[in-house]
Specification:
The protein is mainly alpha-helical. It has a single domain, classed as Arc Repressor Mutant, subunit A (Orthogonal Bundle). 66% of the residues lie in helices and 11% in strands. It is built from five helices and two strands. A two-stranded antiparallel sheet has the order 1-2.
């Protein structure tokens, strides 16, 4: 299981979310290819890709002079599982509270 903190930290930045969304929608791409659709430089895209890679959200493959990045969905699934687990705990607590409030006096 990946570290949800790293995933949430990486995706806290709206530019990184946009880059990840672009990769998820279009498959593998280069930093230059991604930069064409964004109002930032290729170097900035590369830095954002490095942060996504550190969180395990993208993988890279070098092909000649270019590096192609592709999304890796497993860390997102792990983060979603963590949110579901925490959400279920709160659902249980809130249901218990509702039963207490609804109990006849």
């Amino acid at each position: 299981m990946s570290d949800p903190d790293a995933v949430f930290a990486a995706l806290a930045d709206p530019t990184r979310r946009g880059i990840y969304r672009a990769l998820a929608g279009g498959g593998a791409d280069t930093a230059s290819g991604l930069a064409r659709g964004l109002p930032i430089s290729r170097q900035a895209v590369s830095k954002h890709l490095a942060a996504l890679a550190e969180a395990g959200l993208v993988a890279s493959e070098r092909n000649g002079r270019e590096t192609h990045y592709r999304p890796t969905p497993a860390p997102l699934a792990d983060a979603a599982a963590w949110m579901n687990e925490v959400g279920a705990l709160w659902d249980t607590r809130l249901a218990a509270l509702a039963r207490l409030v609804e109990r006849p006096a």
